[in-house]
Amino acid sequence: MKSNLLSFVFLLSLTTNLIAATSGKIAGTVTDAETDDPLPGVNVVLEGTTMGAATNVNGEYIILNVPPGTYTLRAQMIGYTAVRVQDVRVSIDLTTTQNFELSP
Length: 104
Fold this sequence. Notes:
By secondary structure, the chain is α/β, with parallel strands linked by helices. About 20% of the residues lie in helices and about 45% in strands. The strands form 2 sheets. Strands 1, 4, 7 and 8 form a 4-stranded mixed beta sheet that branches. It has a 4-stranded antiparallel beta sheet with strand order 3-2-5-6, with no helix packed on it. β5 and β6 form a beta hairpin.
């Protein structure tokens, strides 16, 4: 009986891990191109989706639960020129790093 329970728990944990590993994430930092200072409040979006994030006070952003694939990322903030980066590849269970430098 005890070995059956352990087998069930083991199989359940494998199934949970397989289900959980179906997406990746994108993270990075956005800075001012002239001063190299971090930019808080920048919107970073995956074009063609409803996914995105805003940078924190350190200019950092994280977009979670991104389905695997290739995307175009756009970073924009009032007073700065928007920047687009194409062919950003997201893989299952990995973090893709994409940093931006915005010009005033």
